[in-house]
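Long-time lurker, first post. I've been practising inverse folding by hand and with some scripts of my own, and I keep getting stuck on stretches where the structure tokens seem ambiguous. Below is the full token string for one chain I'm working on. Before anyone asks, I'm not after the true native sequence, just a reasonable design that respects the backbone. If someone could post their per-position residues I'd love to compare against what I wrote down in my notebook.
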């Protein structure tokens, strides 16, 4: 905000080295003294010297160019006796970043130690505006502004009242700390005073990150009552920061939230945690049981060892199954490492990954924590370690080959332990036959060793060999057109593998919820994991089609089915590999760009084409509507839950006017006839701010937690920060 001082000082250097002159024309140029490195170009209608006052004067359309910066004024006077420069009349300063500063009058000495401006205003690089009656620069780099207004909203003659502004009796910009502090500040919305702050501070918008208070969050919840959370951001080093966020609530004891981030030379870490001392409480905020320390920790880190190797970790733990739901803590279910856990299951992991031109390797240690009502402590496994390594070769005309090694060692406090080690290899080759047919022969073989808990499985160990060999033949058809390009590719696959490879003593750990779909249609083994393997004879047929219009729309689909030589009793109906034939599987996409995209996956019964499963997702960002919708339905016959499952998810925003929008969201369980989460609200948004009033309600019942509802007020101010959260899960 004080760059005007630099221009005035530069002009002082120009004037001090300029020769005395009387009326010169507008093209006159004053050159600096040879001992000063600065080069300043000064243009004016007149440049002259007043010898009695020992002053140099430039008048009429004065423009000074200094290091790509421009100063314009009606009149500039440099007094060589007092060593001060004064610019008056429509003073405008244009900086190299495009920011503009204005004043009726500025005065400063040539050494830039002190100065002032009258009628000062500035437009900062990020669009913010500051206006004050006067601005004073002190020798210690502190700039004081009197009767100041600050806003990030556009201000013009047609709209003199910004959406929001900070009006203060006095503001101080410390150039060393790059902080702006206000005394007797009033936060105004549309010119109406809303909040009064005896003291308020925020970083200069052009500065780096700075410590300070962040925007608070608050609302009213049936669980917590009226609540308020005030974060404080502490950037205690160039590579580390922590956000401390205490929350007070009407119904329950205070909670302290902490977010920590640190950047290292080779990577970084991020942790989110909270702690409180409280009893259990239900959806109405009624407390029961003993008070004790409760909390959660979610964290992750990733580091480079070499250009090809990385290691990292993920941490997920909380003291109570319902802790995150009681305090509405987000983050459960996010990916924090190599593996992603299932809903309502926490996963902590330590892993390493290596990948080069001809190899891939990963190794991890996993530990699970169950949050579901039926989870028993100690029944979920610890995996130490799970390992996969693969080396592959491009053999040119002889195809591609690879060998791999895998292991998984599972231990439980309650239930069966198991350890598996596998060694395998595969080969494939792609060729083209006369007529345009593509042919891809393939083969794979693997040896597995399982060490088991004999008291549960009946065997101390199991050794087996599995494998498949076959061929895939396809006939791609391409038809370019003036309007649309068409690609159609029918394909068939046939393979034969080892029989009776699924020993009932082998525990099924990694294929419980596996389902064969269109992505595995032509795979040699319909199961993508290890514990179950699809041997015997099998065949698959399908067709893929794609239409690409020159004006933008694109349509694609894949449909097919799989047959087996015999049924395997180890495959359940949910896997879609039970019996001797699979259901029909298909996926399709209709892409109209940002205006509309529809993705659909279906599973049709092999007898009568009855709909067994559908998963459809629609997204749009067209004119005033921005939304995502998803519908799913699973038939009772194939559902892993043993009952039908159907639901719908919606999230979006509809602009009613140029400023006002309707915000909506819903996650509905149609079978249970309840809304897992619903929100509706109104939002106002302009170039400098966004305000939201949101009502949320959940009808979920989970042990001691029943339906709950809340009102939240959220807003964000450009250049200052966010208030509340716009997340919807």
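-- Answer (accepted) --
I ran through it position by position. Result:
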């Amino acid at each position: 905000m004080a760059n005007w001082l630099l221009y005035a000082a530069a002009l002082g250097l120009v004037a001090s080295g300029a020769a005395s002159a009387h009326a010169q024309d507008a093209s006159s140029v004053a050159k600096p003294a040879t001992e000063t490195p600065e080069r300043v170009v000064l243009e004016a209608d007149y440049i002259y010297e007043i010898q009695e006052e020992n002053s140099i004067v430039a008048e009429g359309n004065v423009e000074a160019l200094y290091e790509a910066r421009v100063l314009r004024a009606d009149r500039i006077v440099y007094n060589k006796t007092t060593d001060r420069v004064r610019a008056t009349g429509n003073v405008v300063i244009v900086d190299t970043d495009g920011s503009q500063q204005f004043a009726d009058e500025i005065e400063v000495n040539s050494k830039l130690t002190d100065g002032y401006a009258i009628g000062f205003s500035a437009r900062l690089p990020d669009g913010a505006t500051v206006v004050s009656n006067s601005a004073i620069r002190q020798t210690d780099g502190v700039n004081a502004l009197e009767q100041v207004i600050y806003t990030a909203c556009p201000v013009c003659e047609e709209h003199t009242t910004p959406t929001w502004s900070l009006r203060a009796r006095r503001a101080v910009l410390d150039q060393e700390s790059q902080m702006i502090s206000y005394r007797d500040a009033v936060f105004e919305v549309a010119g109406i005073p809303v909040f009064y702050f005896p003291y308020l501070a925020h970083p200069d918008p052009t500065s780096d990150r700075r410590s300070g208070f962040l925007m608070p969050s608050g609302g009213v919840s049936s669980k917590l009552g009226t609540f308020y959370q005030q974060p404080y951001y502490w950037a205690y080093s160039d590579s580390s920061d922590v956000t401390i966020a205490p929350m007070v609530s009407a119904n329950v004891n205070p909670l302290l939230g902490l977010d920590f981030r640190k950047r290292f030379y080779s990577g970084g870490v991020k942790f989110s945690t909270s702690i409180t001392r409280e009893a259990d409480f239900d959806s109405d905020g009624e407390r029961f049981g003993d008070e004790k320390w409760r909390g959660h920790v979610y964290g992750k880190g990733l580091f480079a060892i070499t250009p090809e190797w990385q290691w990292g970790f993920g941490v997920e733990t909380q003291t109570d199954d319902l802790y995150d739901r009681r305090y509405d803590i987000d983050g459960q279910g996010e990916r924090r490492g190599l593996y992603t856990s299932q809903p309502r299951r926490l996963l902590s992991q330590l892993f390493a990954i290596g990948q080069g031109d001809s190899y891939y390797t990963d190794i991890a240690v996993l530990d699970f924590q169950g949050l579901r009502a039926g989870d028993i402590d100690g029944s979920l496994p610890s995996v130490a370690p799970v390992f996969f390594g693969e080396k592959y070769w491009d053999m040119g005309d002889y195809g591609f080959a690879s060998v791999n090694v895998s292991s998984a060692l599972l231990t439980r406090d309650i239930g069966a332990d198991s350890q598996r080690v596998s060694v395998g290899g595969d080969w494939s080759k792609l060729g083209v036959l006369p007529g345009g047919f593509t042919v891809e022969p393939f083969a794979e073989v693997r040896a597995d060793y399982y060490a088991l808990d004999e008291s549960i499985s009946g065997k101390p160990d199991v050794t087996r060999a599995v494998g498949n060999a076959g061929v895939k033949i396809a006939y791609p058809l391409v038809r370019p057109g003036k309007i649309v390009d068409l690609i159609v590719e029918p394909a068939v696959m046939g393979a034969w593998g080892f029989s009776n490879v699924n020993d009932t003593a082998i525990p099924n750990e990694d294929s419980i919820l596996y389902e064969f779909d269109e992505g595995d249609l032509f795979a040699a083994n319909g199961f993508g994991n290890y514990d179950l393997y699809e041997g015997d004879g099998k065949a698959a047929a399908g067709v893929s089609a794609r239409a690409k219009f020159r004006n933008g729309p694109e349509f694609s689909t894949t449909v097919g089915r799989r047959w087996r030589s015999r049924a395997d009793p180890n495959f359940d109906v949910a896997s879609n590999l039970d019996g001797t034939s699979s259901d029909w599987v298909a996926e399709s996409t209709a892409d109209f760009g940002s205006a509309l995209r529809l993705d659909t996956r279906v599973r049709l019964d092999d007898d009568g084409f009855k709909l067994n499963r559908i998963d459809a997702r629609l997204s749009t960002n067209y004119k005033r509507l921005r939304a995502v919708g998803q519908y799913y339905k699973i038939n009772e016959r194939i559902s892993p839950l043993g009952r039908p499952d159907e639901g719908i998810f919606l999230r979006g925003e509809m602009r009613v006017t140029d400023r006002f929008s309707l915000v909506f969201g819903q996650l509905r369980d149609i079978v249970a006839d309840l809304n897992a989460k619903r929100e509706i609200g109104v939002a106002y948004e302009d170039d400098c701010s966004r305000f939201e009033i949101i009502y949320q309600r959940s009808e979920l019942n989970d042990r001691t937690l029943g339906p709950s509802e809340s009102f939240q007020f959220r807003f964000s101010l450009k250049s200052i920060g966010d208030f509340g959260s716009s997340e919807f899960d």
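A couple of notes from the structure itself: Residues 12-36, 722-729 have pLDDT under 50 and may be disordered. The radius of gyration is 35 Å. Happy to go over any region you disagree with.
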